[in-house]
User: Fold these one by one.
Assistant:
Number 1:
Amino acid sequence: MWLYLLIGMLFGVTLTQAEIVSWYRIAEMFQFDSFHMYGVIGSAVVLGVLFLQLARRLGWQSVEGKPFAIYVYPMGWKRFLLGGTVFGMGWAITGACPGPLFILAGAGYSPVLIPLVGALLGTFVYGLVRHRLPH
């Protein structure tokens, strides 16, 4: 467990130093004033695809010893458009997506506790009503 805590702290420091958690960087992104965040997100997507392909070809397994299984979502653009819009609006309003909320809270920015509590409550409510939603 200590290893995961250490990796999480290192990840948080890295994102902070790279200004990924900066509200100003996120505002620049949504106003199309800077390439910084698009470069970071694009790099993450490319690296994710490369590592996933590498994991498949080399037969890597999860921590539980199971092969990686990728769930293929049924096609339907409406739900992705709606979900992406809601996520993007929350990101634009708060200036942070869920991961950096924890980093900002750990860095001592107390106003971020409001969206953090909202995100946790939203996740809890989703868990309660998930069985009633179309999936």
Number 2:
Amino acid sequence: MTRIVLRTTRTWLACVALLTGWVAASGTLRAAVIVDTSTGYSSPTAQLGGYTMTPFGRSLGTIPSSTVNSATDLGLTVQFSGAVEQTTVGAGGWAGWSHGYTGTVWHTAFSATKTSITLTLPTGTKAFYFYAMPGAASGSYNVSLDTVEAAQGGTVTKLVDVFSGAHFFGAYTTAGSSLTQLTISVPGVVNDGFAFGEFGIYNDNAGGGAVPEPTSMAIFGLSGLAFVARRVAAKRRS
């Protein structure tokens, strides 16, 4: 009976070791970009996908020269793919922004391309969110967020009601990967453009904190199981 138990324990240990190695080896393959729009028109939460977020670029004010192509805050820069106008909610329009936000936003109403903008994120960005609002006087419009990691993240589209204000869009990574670019598209606002802003970021170079990633947690858990199995086997041998 003892020999059977020991043989079974060894087999189980081997399976655990193989599974642990597979999880570790496949960590980069399982990396993904997750898009979260669940906050809707409400105020942003403190965390996104387990990452503790930091407000970004909310007090940059209005620039009278009207056009900018980037936003800089926290020692980091988010680059825009085209020139947009920087303004403040209320003082510079967009008074219908949701949940009482009154900070800095950017809009494409006077841009060469009114329906789309790409944000290039600073190196080391693991999570990022923004709000977007169509510029039309009324109606509902499809607003899409597309990640450059299209094979993993792809495009997520939400129907945004102008009367409800700005809608939340967030993206975060798993397995230690980073976000590089996010494209916001509102194809129906060919004359009015759209506004985007109220950013939040988690970046390796800007503080904050994150919970362990699923892959790391799995490895830790399997390692613990392997340790217990070894202890059980040792006791049975003694």
